[in-house]
Amino acid sequence: MHNSIEADPRRVTAVRRSSLPEYLKKHYFLYLMLAPALILTLIFKYGPMYGAVIAFKDFSPIKGILGSEWVGLYNFEKFLSSPNFEVIFMNTLKLSFFGLLLSFPVPILLALMLNQVRRAGVKKNIQLFLYAPNFISVVVVVGMLFIFLSPTGPVNQLFSWINGEPVMFMSRPEYFRWIYILSDIWTGAGWASIIYVAALANVDPELHNAANLDGANLLQRIRHIDLPTIRPIMAIVFILAAGGIMSIGFEKAYLMQTATNLPTSEIIPTYVYKIGLQSGDYAYSAAVGLFNSVINVILLITVNFTVKKLNEGEGLY
């Protein structure tokens, strides 16, 4: 009977169809538990995608989405030909690229160092100290930056003692990226290291014991035992980070902006906010936001393809 079913694809399909209601009936409770998350995702994630159509229209809130005139790619052409395009696009790209380049290795290094701490109590205290900045509000973090880096703040008091004059950190465009990136590393690196710490906890201690007996030093054990263990996770995290390279947090960049640092602090998210909500040009701001999302998708696919080629076929999908 088993062989005859396998020999006839139509009978296999019939058996599968007949077993589907039985399967759903048996596991209905699991699907009920999944339903709220699925419904919320459809409403708040996929539902608003319909609104992206205003990027291709001369949108008027009075006429609505359906009643507004279709203008095609006009809003995209307007943004690409704008004198601000190159500056805004390059500011976003540079801030994201340098942020990824500098911040990606830090959680890995923290996890490798934490993995060498053998006393459980000391390790927990260090982890608590590293994770705590992640729970500080962005508004509070930016407020701290303005206080510490102000002309009369503690940092400038030290610089005044050395150089004789304060440094205008928050007003000078050349300092914006460094302050943004380094503060991001401070607030997020400890929390981002959790996934690597969890992966390293699964390493068999016998591997390290055997390596010790063979005369391997600490760096050799990290290179040949720890790093291969977390390499698949590193690849996935890097792909996701690179895929969202244009998706910079709007709140922090907007709060850190001043009238004098705009040449480097004006990025696509802040530009979309100003054009859309402050100026009321919803169609144009939607086109800019959609352009940003398309760039992210292209980067995600490209980086995933490249990592799979370099990582023995292991990637995000």
Automatic annotation (TrEMBL):
Query: Per the UniProt record, which residue ranges are transmembrane?
Result: 28-47, 95-114, 126-149, 178-199, 230-250, 282-307
Membrane topology value = Multi-pass membrane protein
Which keywords describe this protein according to UniProt?
Cell membrane, Membrane, Transmembrane, Transmembrane helix, Transport
Ranges for domain ABC transmembrane type-1: 89-303
Q: Which domain of life is it from?
A: Bacteria
Family annotation (InterPro entries): MetI-like (IPR000515), MetI-like_sf (IPR035906), UgpAE/MalFG_permease (IPR050809)
Sorted alphabetically, the Gene Ontology cellular component annotations on this record are: plasma membrane
Per UniProt, subcellular location reads as: Cell membrane
Q: Could you provide one GO biological process annotation from this protein's UniProt record?
A: transmembrane transport
Spell out the family assignment given in the record's similarity comment. Answer: Belongs to the binding-protein-dependent transport system permease family.
PANTHER family annotated for this entry? BLL4140 PROTEIN
What is this protein identified as? Answer: Putative aldouronate transport system permease protein
The organism named in the record is: Paenibacillus typhae
